[in-house]
User: Fold this.
Amino acid sequence: MEGALRSIRAALIVMALVAAAAAGAGAFLARFAVRMPPALAELGGPLVLETAQGALALADLKGTVVLLYFGYAHCPDACPAALQTIAAVLDRLPASVRAHGLFVSVDPARDTPRMLARYARFYHPKILAGTISDLARLKQATARFRADFHYDTPDGKPDPQGDYAVDHTSFIYLISPQGRVVNLFDFREDPARIADEAMRWWVHDEMQGGKK
Amino acid sequence: MKRWFVMLAFVLAVQGEAAEAPLVAHDAWVRATPPGVDRSAGYLVLENPSDAPVRVAAAHCEGAARTMLHETVRLPDGREQMRHVQGWDVPPHGKLVLAPGGRHLMLMQLARPLREGDAITCTLLTDRGKLTVRFAVRR
Assistant:
């Protein structure tokens, strides 16, 4: 009788332990759950840039988390803020997470690939930079990301010697190691939140074997 | 015509020398300039302990050919636009915040790069006198 009670109690303890473990695992897995906003499903596409090191395609960065931003070097407020945010995200990610920033200039008249390389390195060694010098192709590429820009010049055209601002969308695109745009952040976002999200996508894509 | 300008300049100079704007500035900083870029943005918090509003109408920063009052605003289509503004009011017993992604001083055509750890002086001109502020250069 006493033996039966003891075994029932033992069984109950085991069940409780299993339940607790399951709950713990659930909570653990929830930390790494990812959800892509459905509106982003169509976002992104081929992006081939002219950089100081030659042509660089976004697809070349598969297997790494990419924080993509469209801006211009003569931008004094929004772009440095965004690049500082990206640099802070890169610094927060563990060394085992392969990640890059990618700055795309929408002002190729003034931003040459060489100058962009030095500009981006100033913010973080892991931030790459490039542009597309042909304006029609630049518009095509940026449109795939629904990134928009407009030159504040009298005729709306860029000018290599000009002193003008460029209105532009200012989002940070999170691109998963599998190469999909999986989230979009305001450039004023807390780097810790972006780093958490980048981490989750890294783990998710690693588990799916999307490493390379 | 020319005499008017001289008189105006004189009046402004006398006012500027005499009055110190009743504002308290803190957390003033400008961004270090990346290579190849001759412009920067300045930020600070201005507090107005007085009983009347103070209007910031212009600024001049050491080393910059021009300093403008700017605001980055989001347009309905999602673009961020930098707008030149005529001035900002610091409300009585209130404050005005200049911070990244919003209100800022735009420093144009800098004679020298701004390096982290340095500091520059800017003068803010208001309707109640001027205010000289040291801005730390930060990244």
